[in-house]
Amino acid sequence: PALEMQAEIKARGGLIVPAHVFTPHKGIYGSTAPRMGEVLDTSLVDAVELGLSSDSSMASYIRELDHVPFLTNSDAHSLGKIGREYNELQVAAPSFDEFRMALQGEAGRSIAANYGLNPRLGKYHRTYCAACGSIMDEQAMSAERCPHCGSLKLVQGVLDRILAISDRESPHVPANRPAYHYQVPLEFIPGLGKAKLRQLLDHFGTEMNVLHRTREEELAAVVGPVLAGLIVAARKGQLELSSGGGGTYGKVAVQEKASE
User: Fold this and answer.
1) In Å, what is the CA distance from 63 to each residue of 29, 57, 66?
2) Which of 135, 173, 195, 223 has its CA 20 to 30 A from that of 101?
């Protein structure tokens, strides 16, 4: 039982961080209960991990999370996706004890920032029809039947689930919540294939350098002005994104200039 598991973990000095809390099928909010307190002793929860399809703002529709630290982590299903979501921690050393102190905000340790996929790109952001494969748009978010085929086989998306169980009309992000930095991984950028990705990594070392630190003119010198412009537009949150749902990632809208 969950409460017994929590007691055993804490008795051994462990940390309790429910993962992917809003994801359908297995997430604690996604399918288990509208409130974590119905399942777990929330006083023993050290943090929650938000998942690809949500962010700090979306999670802040739920009052019981106001005092819970947020983490952003990516699964390790494949090498290329390790690190697409991560946390910036203020710690003295990379150790378990320092990580615990960062979660608890002790002695100057902290979660300095969260880096995560733009939720619209997440695989479960919006409600999905399992019968015809349609992803529900903004106008259909409260529909009980698929507006495209009439089926009742709808898999509720993370945003729609949060709005359904929220106890606020609008999100309230506490002032001490770390900044949330959105990322559009390079594999989502239209026209940026494996060869150009390799060129970028050879020149700038890591994908994080490309996404967040390298100047546009430096990028353009390697992959051309069009792709450089798209990478910088992603950095500024200026790309048009279509929402993911039902296990399918969202997409960056294809633009004619990005066809090279």
Assistant:
1) 13, 12, 5
2) 173
